[in-house]
Amino acid sequence: MIPFKHMNPYEALPDEAFWRKAIAGKQPMQVTNIWKPKFRVGYHHRIATAGSCFAQHISKALIDRGYNWVDAEPAPEELSHDSKLLFNYGVFSFRTGNIYTAALLKQWVKWALEREPMPDEVWKSDIGRFIDPFRPSIEPSGFYSLEELQASRECTLRAIREALTTSKYFFFTLGLTEAWINRKGKYVYPMCPGTIAGEFLPELHQFKNFTYRDIRRDIMQSLEIIKLANPKIKFMLTVSPVPLTATADHKHVLVATTYSKSVLRAVAGEIADESADVDYFPSYELITGFPFRGMFFKENMRSITAEGVNFVMNSFFSCLESIQGKRKRKNIADASSVTVRNVAETLSDNEDDIVCEEELLSVFGQK
């Protein structure tokens, strides 16, 4: 008697499970079904965003498509479009500037939701203005007084609380593993002191390249704190595909970039695999994957082209629609104290609208 032959596990897999069908047999722009969303993100759902420079593209894409993006710290009405960008309004859901590392996210979450006191460190500019070390680029000329700086900090902390406690989703883009910390206070800076502002002091400022274990711990603690304040919130993690502008780790910048992105990708993927309320969207793979042959990078091999950004965003929304069907566009009016950006108020698609402090490090490579 001939024994019954069972199917092996690969025989019933869909096309996207096979390299030949999903990649080798397609042109780069034909690569689809890259992601299976966990959540049904509706137009009415409140969505907060933060993270590295690339996360700003997500904010803009949500606005462009009429989603309920939360702007918890809106700009004064009298500011022009350029002035809003200059002063970091409308970039993320709150006016922190770019949050490049998991450690910096955890700091802001603790300061805002656990009311942990912020360090009292303040810098002075050459013209006597006050600079916030944790938001060094949001006021290009600095604050006129210490009281004005502190009032601005409190406004941002309130905005973080408002956004994270009232949103259905929080999208966060991981950018870097490298950071600079204060040796005494053990807190982390968004940028190395002495680059954008402040003074670098070797005895006080220490370089830190966070490990996988560090980053996983910081992300998990951040999500847990947010969940305590808002049990219904869900999270979307992404990894920025933008390479490091510079590294302080005494390695070639290509090696440092590969380490940084590999660790961030591994952390984000593992947390999403283990958590029912966390998803991971592969924006990193859609730009840097070798099937795309670097076609989405500009000549400097760092900046992402408009075509690349559109490819990523179109992939994101087409995958969402694949699980929930086409929906009518909605403009949601929200009666709460948080301002919801209407699609008509969207920022332009000009690359100059992307605020990226880390790019300023490139000037030091020209000396």
Quaternary structure state of the chains depicted: single chain
Distance between the termini: 81 Å
The structural domain count equals 1
Strand order of the largest sheet: 10-9-5-1-2-11
Q: Strand percentage, roughly?
A: 5-15%
Give, in order, the helices and strands.
HEHEHHEEHEEEEHEHEHHE
Radius of gyration: 21 Å
What's the helical proportion of residues?
Answer: 25-40%
Summarize the main sheet: 6 strands, mixed
Uncertain ranges: 326-350
Defining key terms:
3-stranded antiparallel sheet; 367 residues; 9 helices; alpha/beta; single chain; 33% helix; 6-stranded mixed sheet
Give your account of this protein's structure.
- The protein is built from 9 helices and 11 strands.
- The strands form 3 sheets. It has a 6-stranded mixed beta sheet with strand order 10-9-5-1-2-11, with helices on both faces. Strands 7-6-8 form a 3-stranded antiparallel beta sheet, covered by helices on one side. Strands 3-4 form a two-stranded antiparallel sheet.
- The chain is globular, with a radius of gyration of 21 Å.
- The protein has one domain.
- It is of the alpha/beta class and 367 residues long.
Protein topology:
Blueprint: H1 19-24, E1 46-51, H2 55-64, E2 68-71, H3 81-86, H4 102-113, E3 123-124, E4 130-131, H5 146-166, E5 169-174, E6 178-182, E7 188-189, E8 205-209, H6 212-229, E9 234-239, H7 253-274, E10 278-280, H8 283-288, H9 306-324, E11 339-340
Parallel strand pairs: 1-2, 1-5, 5-9, 9-10
Antiparallel strand pairs: 2-11, 3-4, 6-7, 6-8
Helix pairs in contact: 4-5, 4-6, 6-7
